[in-house]
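Anyone else keep sequences and structure tokens together like this?

Example one:
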Amino acid sequence: MTEDILQETFLKAFTALKDSHTNMRAWLYMVARNLCFNSMKREKKNVPADLGEAMESRQDAGQDVLEGILRDERKRMLWEAMYRLESRRREILILQYFGGFSQREIAAMLRLSPENVRVQVHRAKKELKTCLEVMHYDVS
């Protein structure tokens, strides 16, 4: 499914993207995002509950096992906390911190004001901090 969406995104870019477009990266993201949403609606499947595990890389050979376990647990907790956020806030954080987009680019993609994006990032980080603190105490 991922490969199909990627292929369809670039096919749309070749056929519909104008040479004069100012932000190809943002345009590609929006097309891919919309195709993903359409695909999920068609298949009536939810986003995997633990996307973090799917995105984790394998441990390097010879790495300290305990260090690897702790790192993986921190990643798992982060992704679990991310999925407790409201979907718009989660998407904004993913775009900014994992996608490398600026708040201005995110605002244009999601049709929000840059100020609204800034506020959403602030609130999402505050919620994440609270959630991670609660999760840390629940684990201890």
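And example two:
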Amino acid sequence: MVSAVPDYAVPPMRVSLIARVLRGAALTGGSFVLMQALRFGSNLILARLLFPEAFGLMALLTMIVMGLTLLSDSGVQQSIMQHDRGDEPDFLNTAWTLNAVRGVVLWLLACALAWPAAQIYNAPELMAVLPVGALTLVCMGLAPTRVYTAQRHLQLGRITAIELGTQIVSISVMVLTAWATGSYWALVVGTLVAALLKLALEWTVLPGQRNRLAWEKSAGRDLLRFGGWILLSSSCGFLILQGDRAFLGLYLSIEGLGIYTIAWFLASFPILLAQALVGRLLIPAYRESHLADNPRLHARIRWLRMYMTGGVWAMLGVLALLGPWLVGLLYDDRYVLAGAIMVLIAAAQMFPMVTMTYDQAALARGDSRRFFKLMALRAGLQTSMFVAGMMLAGLPGALAGQALSAVLAYPAMARMARDMDVWDKHHDMIFATLAALGTLGALSLHWGSLQALIAPF
């Protein structure tokens, strides 16, 4: 049975794929820049109202919550974005039921992990913070599937407005609570308020059908088959995205982890922007361009990737060059080491950016197994090189190992991209060269500041 699809979910034929991608890029990029500007302003205020330990504690909370999320990722979002039945109510209700149950189970697991985590990281505050902060997992699980339907068709306007609104409210709550209490609870409460408000707006503002608990066997079978490889891939993704904080939380003090978190916040802006654009735009773009089988369309998407990578490299280069000066200008002496760490983080991310747009091609073709193989390779290389570098040369060595792992993973990434007909060797050669030059330039310019990291870390 073919079910009706919401009108907004079917883009008019006269609106080309490239036009929708560009509009989606403008919305996603513009909103991301604005949200990061808001976060940056609030970070400056919160850094003066709170102590570095508060940011370290929040980094541990975020790492655990994201770990639970990624280690149980059922691939619902990716399934809806690429599946032929991604607009059918029975398929969507089954997907929503799977997500809702998962959210509740994850919150219960977070509660059970509170005591062990507090002991492992010598942070007794996690006993109370983790059960409260992990309620965001329940909110994520209850999010309506109309969010993913809108992303499937690159209809991102209302989603963008919701994210901006919740960000403003969250920041306001954090700043006011920090001013009134001076406690790390300001960060926890602000994050939870944002999750609750976002959930309410998604259910009331976004158009489309209302989800209900249901389970269709064929839909469930497809979701679980595709999601099984996504689950394994996301487990690897946890090591890629949060492995640094998981290991550094054992290696550094809570204060040191807080300083690292500030540096990561400042240096990661270009990579987070790229991840937002890639995650929302490239799966539908690759899917539709593959179905259209139009060489001109493929060429235009390659140019879009070229512009995206160039923009990311330029931003990373600026941050690597200005890191210590920027931190010295904006933060007090408690955070001075964040400037040198910022240089290392920005330099370490220059090589991974070369292939950041390739892995989504496998998901767009429904090949979640191959996506998992790539993620497993990247996670294994990055984790082993990060830990080895940390043992040999502390934090600088760990971040150098992270950059080297991206170089070692390149042959496998390029082979997959070639098989999916998205490989662009000229793109890779240009930006690999720029990454090497940018890294050498930043390290040479700030060598004195970088040496100061070896003793404290």
